[in-house]
Amino acid sequence: MERKKYPRILFRKRLRELKEDVNEIGQIAIQAHKNAIKAFNNYDKDLLDDVTKARDKIEELSFHLERKCISIIASEQPVAMDLRFIEACIKVGSHLKRIGSLSVNIAEAAKNLKGEEIPARSMEDLNHMANLVQMMLSKGLYSFIDQNMDMARELRHDDDKVDDLFDQSLENVTSSMFQNKDSISYMIYLLFIARFLERIADRAVSLGDRTIFMITCEKPKKLELKK
Amino acid sequence: MERKKYPRILFRKRLRELKEDVNEIGQIAIQAHKNAIKAFNNYDKDLLDDVTKARDKIEELSFHLERKCISIIASEQPVAMDLRFIEACIKVGSHLKRIGSLSVNIAEAAKNLKGEEIPARSMEDLNHMANLVQMMLSKGLYSFIDQNMDMARELRHDDDKVDDLFDQSLENVTSSMFQNKDSISYMIYLLFIARFLERIADRAVSLGDRTIFMITCEKPKKLELKK
């Protein structure tokens, strides 16, 4: 008789549940980022509260996800791709947690920009960045959920675009500060927001890298060092 | 006969090895941060290279640490404190990895400040912050290695000081920019360095929180949300 450690029906069910959990957390993170950008464009205390609540929810859910993953590893002793999938769930959970915190950072920075006059060019730069990042977040999440390597690989190129936009907005914000000294005290928050967006993009890339590692066993380190 | 799943000699040995691994990675991270600050005070390409190499080494070592931890969980099915210790090793590894990257960020930002005139006040603020952060890093690492709850708890208060210094340096840098428009293009890197230091301090706090959770089972989430 063939040694059939897997598939065990219950085990498969537990893996499916993990994927559903990751998807749930991912959707909350994507929404948190959207609301943070809304707050940047039109600050509103309720939006900041929404993003903060989302961050807390993500922390709680990813904490439970991690416990579940560890308990499955201990009780089922999965191997190969199954093991890598469970490990990936832990990592993806912690990336999503960080994306939640960075979204709160954006919404909080937006508070400092409320009512201030922001150069149209900087608004455009940052919204352009935010749109790319939003798309990268979805790609990162769905590349993992659907185990789609092509989508995961695209994220590296997307990230280059975000990096270019980051440099561009740094330059534009700096020259605006130069033209209008009075704007310095709040314009620095535009710099921070650009930086937060760039960090979220990095996390989206990490979601893709983890997906690639899960499927191919290609070490994320090598990928990460490419940049 | 008493059911003696633990202590098994080999199992204990493997746990000791994990602790040694964490300590090794921690020492490299502490040194990377020191070199990054040296580069800030007196930029030198070799220092940037050292920090980058340290970051790469940390990534490699923490990757192997994670594999080891997962394999111990799967093969030994540890419970309670032993399990929490192993999980903590994974988390601590990933915090140290992030500290390595942030150190590279500091050294790279320092490159942009090379040869520029930086106001003495800002140099003082940032060095003050860097010293506190250096001390927090050690505390974070040793609180985990020695399972010292008091040390772990102190980190929250240390972090408040770092946050105050961050606000202070933000204010000082902004007012220097205001006085000397030509400085804006490089002074923004001081803001970024302040932010990187603040992020490293947060990671040091996370090391302490993880230690507390490992010992008391008190959820890190609650602690994290306190700020």
Automatic annotation (TrEMBL), chains A, B:
- Please report the stretch or stretches of sequence annotated as the PhoU domain: 22-109, 126-210
Q: Which InterPro entries match?
A: PhoU, PhoU-like_sf, PhoU_dom
What are the subcellular locations of this protein?
Cytoplasm
Top-level taxon in the UniProt lineage: Archaea
- One GO cellular component term noted in the UniProt record for this chain: cytoplasm
Q: Which residues form the signal peptide?
A: none
> Is the keyword Ion transport assigned to this protein?
no
Q: Which UniProt keywords apply?
A: Cytoplasm, Phosphate transport, Transport
Assembly and oligomerization: Homodimer.
Its job: Plays a role in the regulation of phosphate uptake.
Under what name is this protein listed?
Phosphate-specific transport system accessory protein PhoU
Which organism does this record belong to? Answer: Methanobacterium veterum
Q: Which gene encodes it?
A: phoU
